[in-house]
Design brief:
By secondary structure, the chain is of the alpha+beta class. Helices cover 38% and strands 21% of the residues. The longest helix has 20 residues.
Amino acid sequence: MKRKVLMMVFAGLLLIAPGAFAAPMVGSYVEFADSYGSTGGGEFAMYEYVAGPGVGTQYPNTFCVETREYLDFVSPFYVNAYETPYGGTAWLYWQFATGVLANYDYTTPALRVGDADALQQAIWFFQGQPGGVDNAYAALAVSNSAQWGTALQNVVILDLLYIQRGGPLAQDVLALVDPVPEPTTLLLLGLGLIGVAGLRRKM
């Protein structure tokens, strides 16, 4: 009897463990809202589109990859495919989305606007886009090029399609795939492993 109860508790822990952020799946829909930045780029809030605007889970804020494409804040976009970013782009976004990008002011809105503009310009620089600037963020990415391989395992470009006026409009934005697990996730995993150890002892 104790074995059954322990197994049920372990299963329950797995069910309530929060999932790590992941890129929206191909075939799903996302929606956007404007965020920090004063240029045509900067940060954009990205949400899972479920049954209507503002309903789905929020993903980490994203940045545009191309300068000649535009986001729409009214209708959802279809996730058409995943693409691979340039290594410097992946590293910068990985650092930004996990909250550890050096010299990026996450807490002061007035300063975050300028930082978002500069980060967008560095991303465009690495992606070879007009408006890209080889600035301090680009230099920071180059100085950490040894970590680019790891970053590329954690970041993808979402190839998005927005159907309007009879034809598809494309947009590419960045998404985090596999960040470091949250402390809560690790705690629940640890409790689950303790449950498994308890099962083995009683057998």
